[in-house]
Write a structure and sequence with these properties.
Layout (H helix, E strand, L loop, with lengths): L1 H5 L10 H7 L5 H10 L6 E4 L2 E3 L2 H10 L10 H17 L4
Amino acid sequence: MSGEATNPGVTRPLLTEANFRAALGGMSERKFKALRAQGVIPQPLELGPRVARWTHEDYLETVARLPRRAPTPEPATLGEARRARIERMKACGAPS
């Protein structure tokens, strides 16, 4: 793969919707269409009335645009349960 990016004579194949979704980690068709409607995924090249394809550059652009999940704090109950488990282990004399 690394040689392809540096060789200007190498062309990458156009991606079908199925190829594009698979490259995005097996994204569902519903999620793919939702992201297209939101403008995250660019419009495809129209090669015919029923032939739509995306370029490798479209894929890279899409990956850069995908929403990121913000880190969420640990739920309080999880921390409480962990602390209780540690205290029980101390009470039993188990090695920590």
